Amino acid sequence: MARVAIVTxxxxxxxxxxxxxxxxxGMTVAANYAGNDERARAFTERTGIRxxxxxxxxxxxxxxxxxxVAAELGPIDVLVNNAGITRDGTILKMxxxxxxxxxxxxxxxxxxxxKAVFPGMREKKWGRIVxxxxxxxxxxxxxxxxxxxxxxxxxxxxxxxxxxxxRAGVTVNxxxxxxxxxxMVAAVPGEVLEKIVxxxxxxxxxxxxxxxxxxxxxxxxxxxxxxxxTLSINGGQHMY
Length: 240
Ligand SMILES: NC(=O)c1ccc[n+]([C@@H]2O[C@H](COP(=O)([O-])OP(=O)(O)OC[C@H]3O[C@@H](n4cnc5c(N)ncnc54)[C@H](OP(=O)(O)O)[C@@H]3O)[C@@H](O)[C@H]2O)c1
What we know:
single chain; alpha/beta; Rossmann fold; about 50% helix; about 15% strand; binds NADP nicotinamide-adenine-dinucleotide phosphate; Acetoacetyl-CoA reductase; EC 1.1.1.36; oxidoreductase; SDR
């Protein structure tokens, strides 16, 4: 039977490419999203992948959403925690709400979703969890204490959960994308973006499909010996 995968924020941007890559790999995919119904509807029409609306920052909504996906598509084998937001500003201008929203969505969402699917994966003795971090969680970024902290937290979360899953056949890995050509990056002012691209050794923004290829590998049968790792896909912008 086909593996069942949930991709949070799976209806546009990097998530859309991940949903498609996992479908191409033969999985039955559920793409979660937060509120952009129009983009979700267009995504489902175009790809045939079902979209499910809930807020990953809401613990109870994650439990209910995963239960619905499992009832409709089957027990969940693969989780990609991709949903993420930015609320940028220097700490002088960052409100508590801007801090909390980013932490609750980007990092809290990983916990909320893993809580829903990890027990079932352990029981089946097979599972794949991939968390989408960021170059800015590795290197920090001016005006992003909330985002950098959340993404940095994802890398620690990944390594800790990987240790809990290893004996039970559940791998947990992270991908740290550099700057990828999506709506999120389109929101960065043009002159700032030009300076960012100038610092990328490969000389261009990345493509969502380039992240999706990495995710598909980590979620494959062949990826079973890779766990607790972070794969940086950033055009050489940050190496360590
Ligand atoms: N783009 C980059 O350069 C870059 C670089 C490094 C890391 N990343 C990370 O990669 C991931 C995807 O980024 P992207 O650029 O593809 O973002 P994007 O184009 O803004 O898409 C974000 C997706 O996440 C969903 N989402 C947002 N908040 C959510 C919530 N609370 N609950 C459920 N879904 C939610 C959105 O749903 P709606 O459509 O309903 O709004 C959308 O599907 C994020 O975690 C981001 O931090 C991106």
